[in-house]
Amino acid sequence: MKKEIRTVVYDDELRIEAYRFEGIVQPFPSHFHEHYVIGFVEKGERVLSCMGREYAIEEGSIVLFNPGESHACVQSDEGTFDYRGFNIPKEVMLDLAEEVTGKKSVPGRKRELIGLSENVIVDEEAACNLRLLHEMVMKGTGELGKEETLLLLIEHLIRNYGQPFESCIPDCRQEIEKACKYMERHFTERLYLDQICSCVGLSKSTLLRAFTKEKGVTPYRYLETIRINEAKRLLSEGIPPVEAAIRTGFSDQSHFTNYFNQFIGLAPGTYREIFSEKDGDGKQEDKLSKKPEDKSSRKKEG
Description:
single chain; alpha+beta; 302 residues
């Protein structure tokens, strides 16, 4: 069987992550991200579940996930899965959307997120720009062309599949939103259903049914995803995995590592390396890599 190769590059200039997974057989359980995902299937067949719908994805499929959209996938053939894609933070997508639409933000006015109306598409123009951009990010080349290609890709997606972000989110009962906020405030603690039910005024069975229907995941999976997303932020700041596990409410290091690998497809320590300074070309198989920063011409962000 083909060896699994997992490579991720963080591009300082574009402020996005580029993923390249080859020979993957691992299923991914239902989870969500706080960022946008734009991905391209190069090989293999999988069943993708997203917000209550199922899709058959195969070579040539493009997958699009808005922040907060729960999804899962599992291999449906006897082979392996090859995939490349981008993770784009919400703030970066806001900047890109304003650039391509010409609708600049006004001081004091809330910036409006763009939603992508389809989760699975087949679009040759989008695929062409996606592959080209991915190669440039992976190789650390094409400064002007790289930014131009990203703008062309986002412009095409917004023009053909964009809509106000709010319309992509199903109407949620007030109690469910309150439950989400409660877990977001208390995710570092040991939580029980009784606590959440007491906060929102629902029985356990009603909470489980209503929450899963509206969010596409159970309350526990929602809580674990919040913890994983916060752990990613801590790891990107150089926090050691063992400390990240403690600070995000995981019971032990093993539990944290297993969940992180299930959700992200990488070990916590490997993910942390993307944001660490490296010698050489900065890219290795089965490891994350970071595009070297030109410190002489650009200030370090943050």
